[in-house]
Amino acid sequence: MATSIKKGAFVLLVVLSLSSIVFIAYLNYKNAGNAPPQETPAAATTAAEYKKLKPGFSTKEELIDSLGKPLDTKVENGNEVLEYNSNNPNLNNRFIFRDSKLSFVKEVITLKDNIKISNIKAKYGVPQYALFGPGATIGFYLYIYPDRGLAYVGHSKSDLIKEIWYFPATDFESFKSRYASDYSDTIQPVQ
User: Fold this and answer.
1) Residue 183 near residue 131, CB atoms below 8 Å
2) Which of 15-19, 64-68, 124-128, 153-157 shows the lowest per-residue confidence on average (mean pLDDT)?
3) Per the CB 3.0–4.6 Å rule, which of 27, 30, 84, 108 could disulfide with 91?
């Protein structure tokens, strides 16, 4: 009896596998040559955006048109900083402008936002780099996709995200020096 169940399961597995292969081959045959390859500008396929705002391209006027009047506007290190509400009552989302263009967005994430590390990985893949900052000793690392203009501070074991950073696509060393100079390649012990 057990042998006939094993044989039946094996036959079913083979039939399902062959059916899948035939179906995929049919789809490839049906679609072959019908649709011309679509060309998309590199920036559109690689650069991350915050609510259709593109770091390196969007202006202050576009930000205000999209999100309304900011809660606060100030100048830090010669750059204009606009702050907007987040779902965290203690921290605001920050938008930094350099040379009249949006250069950096720090989005504060809470459980209410329902954004997880797995959501980011599903869209962008595995992060290329990680750095360690103030929360590293409890497992919150800065994960970076420099060529996508995206980074997040998250805890991989719990799938939680604290912040998402948006910036113009760049290389890792430029990202570190410009946006994460207070982060390290190694976890620093608590003193």
Assistant:
1) yes
2) 15-19
3) 108
pTM for the full model? 0.73
| CA atoms of 120 and 25, how far apart (whole Å) | 31
Confidence (pLDDT) at 3: 59
CA-closest candidate to residue 88, choices 165, 184, 162, 149: 162
Pick from 127, 106, 115, 113: nearest CA to 160: 115
Report yes or no: 168 and 43 within 8 Å, Cβ to Cβ: no
* Cβ pair 82, 66 in contact under 8 A: no
Residue of 102, 97, 172, 99 whose CA lies nearest to 142: 172
**Structure-token pair, residue 58:** 């969007």
Q: Cβ(119)–Cβ(137) under 8 Å?
A: no
CA 100/CA 78 separation, integer angstroms: 12
